[in-house]
Automatic annotation (TrEMBL):
This is glycine dehydrogenase (aminomethyl-transferring). Residues 173-301 form the Aminotransferase class V domain. The lineage of its organism: Bacteria, Pseudomonadati, Pseudomonadota, Alphaproteobacteria, Hyphomicrobiales. Residues 12-22 have a biased composition (Polar residues). One of its GO terms (cellular component) is cytosol. The keyword Oxidoreductase applies. It catalyses: N(6)-[(R)-lipoyl]-L-lysyl-[glycine-cleavage complex H protein] + glycine + H(+) = N(6)-[(R)-S(8)-aminomethyldihydrolipoyl]-L-lysyl-[glycine-cleavage complex H protein] + CO2. Its EC number is 1.4.4.2. One of its GO terms (biological process) is glycine decarboxylation via glycine cleavage system. The keyword Repressor does not apply. Pfam families: Aminotran_5, GcvP2_C. It comes from Phreatobacter stygius. It comes from the Bacteria.
Length: 522
């Protein structure tokens, strides 16, 4: 059945079938067309004076037709975007079960601090003498990042995790070339790694050599040693890894890498599981990026704004890129070679300005409000919550690496769905009907039909209990053969299931008005 706005109703939605609405709205669930469908080209919410006539310099490039943008009145504009926002799912809406991405609660205190006068309104081109407080804040945050990781230096300018990976690997490359080891071109990357790891290494001219993940989901030192040659530059290892497991042989792996003359890059995406519990520097790590949005509660971004500082060991400290803050009689943002800092060998510059100031403020506010004991507890609670989910679902959903404790995220596979007619994708879509964003699906790639769930430390036991009960109900439906509940899901979302493969291969990126139709003659 289709309603007036073209929205398919659920097969069992008797209320929608028995009581269709003229508007296509159902109570406060309001159908919202595209802006181009409801806007009017002759309407604008702003009155501007007519521009003075000038001689055009565009020549043949000048527009000779209407621009085609539509407008709305101010109330209509506000309603349009508010309604669209209500169709989003976010951490303020409910439990966000994505694994690996760590959709953490953003405390409102952090937002208040980021908007303080003198922090929220400064400009990156201001004279350094006028932003001493901001530079001190960056330096203070850098100090705590070094303390928490046991590292000697930190590059604050990278804008995100992948940007941080690039920074760390460029520092390693610069160190190798400075020591006459530029011939080292091989980077070892575990098969279970984030895809950005091999991409980053290849981008700057390294050759990627995979290292297998063993039956317990971890990398074994014997496999690393077997891959080591005089041409190996580094290993890129995630810890805790993307299977949600702590790499128990990490110290031995680091020792083997260093003995071979190579460097240890740690993907710090999952640092939120070990803050206050283990310091990467003590484990032998030489470089590691830190996602402030995952570990220290700054907004997740979605392309920005983001921040991915990179901590470096003594072996790499001299290669921190420009710009960096140096504290002397005053705080100085060092942007070129000077005599202020002895022994500096920056490999270059990663970005125009010194990182993302708003994210620095939020991360420091999180650190100061929690303290060392609070950050440690956050890590413990994240691990506790993930293991609570793992243990509560283990009798119904299969665990690819056995019933061993996990870290901050619980990983299931699709073995338990065999012969049910239900796939991982079907199960995830049915979660939408229950009001939950699906977990991470089909990643890591080393696990078939992977379902990666990360509750974070922010969720209460009551919140987790409802989530677990919902997944148990779905799991029992699947094993009972109630396939209809899954194959058409989601039934209750504003739109039904999309053909995602077709959408990816043939995206429609431009709205075109529907063809006019002639009304029947009377």
């Amino acid at each position: 059945m289709m309603n007036r706005q073209g929205r398919p109703t659920a097969a069992g939605d008797t209320s929608a079938q028995a009581h269709p609405t003229f508007t296509g709205n159902y109570g406060l669930e309001i159908e919202e067309p595209l802006l181009f469908e409801i806007g009017r080209a002759e309407t604008t919410g702003v009155d501007l004076p007519a521009p003075k006539k000038v001689k055009s310099r565009l020549g043949k490039l000048a527009r000779d037709g209407a621009i085609g943008l539509v407008g709305l009145s101010e109330p209509e504009t506000l309603r349009h975007y508010v309604r669209l926002s209500q169709k989003n799912f976010g951490i303020d809406t409910g439990l966000f079960s994505l694994g690996s991405c760590t959709m953490k609660h953003n405390p409102r205190l952090n937002e208040k601090m980021a908007r303080l006068p003198g922090l929220g309104d400064i400009h990156p081109l201001q004279p350094q003498s006028t932003v001493q407080g901001a530079l001190e804040l960056i330096d203070t945050l850098a100090h705590y990042l070094k303390e928490l990781t046991g590292m000697a230096a930190v590059a604050m300018s990278p804008k995100a995790g992948a940007h941080g990976e690039l920074c760390g690997m460029m520092a390693i490359k610069a160190a190798l070339e400075a020591s006459g080891q530029g011939h080292r071109k091989i980077v070892l990357v575990p098969e279970s790694a984030h895809g950005t790891n091999p991409a980053t290494a290849a981008l700057i001219g390294f050759e990627v050599k995979p290292v297998p993940a063993q039956a317990d989901g971890t990398v074994h030192v014997a496999d690393v040693k077997a891959a080591l040659t005089s041409d190996v530059a580094a290993i890129m290892l995630t810890n805790p890894n993307t299977c949600g497991i702590f790499e128990k042989e990490i110290v031995e792996i680091a020792a083997a890498i260093h003995k071979a003359g190579a460097y240890f890059y740690c993907d710090g995406a999952n640092f939120n599981a070990i803050v206050g519990k283990a310091r990467p520097g003590d484990l032998g790590v030489d470089a590691m990026h830190i996602n402030l949005h995952k570990t220290f509660s700054t907004p997740h971004g979605g392309g920005g704004p983001g921040a991915g500082p990179v901590v470096l060991s003594e072996r790499l400290a001299a290669f921190v890129p420009y710009p960096f803050v140096h504290a002397d009689k005053a705080y100085v943002l060092v942007e070129e070679a000077t005599k202020i800092v002895k022994g500096e060998k920056p490999f270059g510059r990663m970005t125009a300005f010194h990182g993302q100031m708003g994210m620095f403020v939020r991360a420091l506010a999180y650190m100061l409000s929690h303290g060392s004991d609070g950050m440690k507890q956050a890590s413990e609670d994240a691990v506790l919550n993930a293991n609570y989910i793992r243990a509560s679902l283990a009798d119904l959903m299969s665990l690819p690496f056995g019933d061993q404790p996990c870290m901050h995220e619980a990983l299931f596979d699709d073995t338990w769905l065999k012969d049910t007619g239900v796939t991982t994708l079907d199960f995830a879509k049915a979660m939408i009907d229950e009001g939950y964003h699906p977990m991470t699906m089909y990643f890591p790639l080393v696990v078939h039909g992977a379902m990666l769930i990360e509750p974070t430390e922010s969720e209460s036991k009551a919140s987790l209990d409802l989530f677990i009960a919902t997944l148990r109900d779905l799991a029992m439906s699947a094993t009972k053969g109630e396939v209809d509940r899954f194959k058409g899901a989601p039934y209750h979302a504003p739109r039904r299931r999309l053909d995602e493969t077709r959408a990816a291969r043939n995206p429609v990126l431009r709205w075109t008005p529907p063809a006019p139709y002639a009304e029947a003659a009377e």
